[in-house]
Amino acid sequence: MERPQPDSMPQDLSEALKEATKEVHTQAENAEFMRNFQKGQVTREGFKLVMASLYHIYVALEEEIERNKENPVYMPLYFPEELHRRAMLEQDMAFWYGAHWQETIPYTAATRSYVRRLHEVGRVEPELLVAHAYTRYLGDLSGGQVLKKIAQKALDLPSSGEGLAFFTFPNIASATKFKQLYRSRMNSLEMSPEVRQRVIKEAKSAFLLNIQLFEELQGLLTQDTTDQSPSATPGLHRRESRRVQEPTAPETPRGKPKLNILSQAPLIRWVLTLSFLVATVAVGLYAM
Ligand code: HEM
Q: Is the CB of 278 under 6 A from ligand 1?
């Protein structure tokens, strides 16, 4: 059998994807949000934000997977029982945001861009869906397990796994074996060289969408902790961002800008200060 040359593109799609995304993977690991996360520097606010984004992303991804489950460009990778995350994320949303989570969870601009691309791919270029499924599911089965342990410790969560259902795959006994099976299924997809190139390009874009999300969330969190100005509209002003579109305030699923408790903090502080001043004046007047 002909073997690939050392510096040529590997024959197997799984190998080609791993190789082609090596650099963006490192970039993703080194995004500030992820670097902090790995150091155990993750707050409840940050964790809730990223989990809500993941909820929207997986709803879109799995909607497109369902649409294409019988399409030969995706069918061999259809593992709903083992992989699908929507039901798990719904549990996590209820844990983190309460019973009315559907009306209250944020929906940020970068999340919306990611979701838009997933729908475009599922509807118009379903042969690229493999790139998105690979990026998310194999990532979740790999680094995701480390992140789960870090979050559990940093956020002081119960060992029962509440709030972390997303990271749990009850129908996968061995992540290593399942990843091997998944890779062999990816390699079994019939694909022209032209499509293969587009799939590889799409996988890199999928990583970049994740990186843009991390950068946006980091920006929102930094903005919340540094902005104490009374005149600023909480969470709504714009800030500089290096390579990414400007982060905007998280929105609820209905599209209304959402003021989370984080972004309300300066407002609350001002209301308290004002109340204190009024009370001081009242006491002064009374004393006179
Ligand atoms: C702190 C962040 C991260 C850490 C520590 C991490 C760590 C890891 C580790 C240890 C592996 C296993 C490598 C192997 O089995 O050979 C892996 C694989 C993978 N990761 Fe990550 N990762 C991180 C972030 C991400 C992100 C953000 C994504 C994409 C959204 C991602 C996607 C993947 C994929 C697709 C694989 C499978 C590669 C392959 O075998 O083809 N990772 N990661």
A: no
